[in-house]
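Lecture notes, unit on protein representations.

Consider one protein chain, 327 amino acids long.
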Amino acid sequence: MERETVDVIIPVYRPGKDFSDMIEKLLGQTVPPAHILIMQTLEEGEGLLAVSQIRFDDGQAFPGNRDKGMEETQIQVFPVRKAEFDHGATRDRGAKQSRADYILFMTQDAMPADERLIENLLRGFSGEKIGIAYGRQLAREGADILEKMARLHNYPPEGRIQTRADVERLGIKTYFCSDVCAMYDRKLYERLGGFVHPTIFNEDMIMAFRVIQAGYGVCYAADAKVVHSHSYTCMQQFHRNFDLGVSQTQYREVFEQISSEKEGAGFAKNTLIALCKRMRFLKAFYFALNCAFRLAGYKLGRNYPRLSKKMILRCTMSPGYWRDYRG
């Protein structure tokens, strides 16, 4: 019986040294990918990343004199004009290059925690009718307490299978999924039409919704781990949640029946209580302020059709998305 194949698809923008480290960890997996497809967003006048520019800790460039598993992986780089980048369309373009059994979408700052990431994601498909398996995100070394608490809330140590039967129990979490590290059954992905586009945000949750509505499950594979976290400022959270609100307004069929505000309020309440119990009152005050910015951005995003284009451009973190918007 032939081994199942996996292609990894990574949108990148001005990748640095950490990206080479990430590629090396992917090449060293117990189940190495057949292809790594890099979708590189380019500014005007920028050149395409040459595979020979990906250098590792030992100074070698790929493919170099590396072990057999690494030499079997092909790395390809595809250009994406910055004005044409789209969360759904760019990833879907990468998916169309693949003929593998499974496609693994990652972001350039998601560092595999060990050599069994791909193996453990594949194991998530061993259950009946699983369409997506997504990994656990761990806080980076030296992360702020708020980063750690957010990661623990969204990515607990216990795995689960999400199906239509869980809507009452899990709410919006039923459709939770993150393309920071998510593997899809390629044939099912294609049958369901691939990622929606254009889309400003949430292409992963929209696809998870479609997978679940088609009668399949989404597996949270807690033993498939990547290191990935951010410490967003209040304004960064405002911009991010504005785009989140926009996407939820544009795809009402996914988000209208289940409120994400209830999930957000529960997280905020539990985090504030935990911080106060630890006597971290200044941190609790900052977190409350941060939540206020999140809520303001989200509410504006949900009501974006009422805003002028000028106002939208001041609120969004994705100005290129609005290039042709007339309002």
